[in-house]
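Reviewer comment 2.1 asked that we show a complete input and output for one of the modelled complexes. We chose the adenosine-5'-triphosphate case, as it is the one discussed in the main text.
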Amino acid sequence: MSPMLEVSDLTVAYGKIAAVKGISFAVEEGQVVTLIGTNGAGKTTTLRTISGLIRPESGSISFQGKRIDDVPAHEIVSLGLAQSPEGRRIFPRMSVEENLHLGAFARNDHKAVAEDLEEAFELFPILRERRKQPAGTFSGGEQQMLAMGRAMMSRPKLLMLDEPSMGLSPLMMQKIMKTVRTLQRRGTTILLVEQNAQAALKLADWGYVLEVGSIVLDGPGRELMTNDAVRKAYLGED
Ligand code: ATP
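Response of the prediction step:
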């Protein structure tokens, strides 16, 4: 069987400068796969290209056996592929609940949407407590939960998370990582982009290391954690 997501020889450029240079990777159904790399490695560019927000220079992206590299972004969401963006991008003046409902914009199965809203509230009780509050009053960690909740509201088969740990306290980060695991258990496949290599690799079935636009290493998450080059470059060890 082909992988759920297959990226082949993908090149993405801003003007003349290639930010992603011919990368290939795959995400198998049911897995948590992580892309790790330092600032500017091309992680966000890769996710935004998969989401259809940027068009690639060359290469292909297939989701469940179908080419999606020329499919409009909103249709990609409808196919079951959602992204929780870096920097959250919630709508600050809208209420928490309104933000969550936006995640379900492409759906008309109202009963299932209500169930998914309940599930988001179960995973993140703070969202229920403050459902009527403007989202802009939330702390960074709370906004991250809201962004994840919103991405889940499209009932994705594959959820892509862009640096969910950014700016969070270690405790909050643990909570987010635990939620990633819970989502996996509930049947969601996850592509996790992280600068925090330690947290991401611990969780990941498979990891890819991205350096200035190229994949330089890949392997099972826990194996990469013990890899000397990864430890030196990403885990702050000598
Ligand atoms: P970070 O963790 O800092 O977000 P990243 O791995 O996600 O880094 P990208 O944001 O994908 O990296 O950036 C990859 C490269 O592309 C960088 O050199 C960046 O400066 C460049 N880049 C990103 N967005 C644009 C843009 N809109 N226009 C021009 N160059 C860009």
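Residues 170-185 form the longest helix (16 residues). We note this here for comparison with the apo prediction described in Section 3.2.
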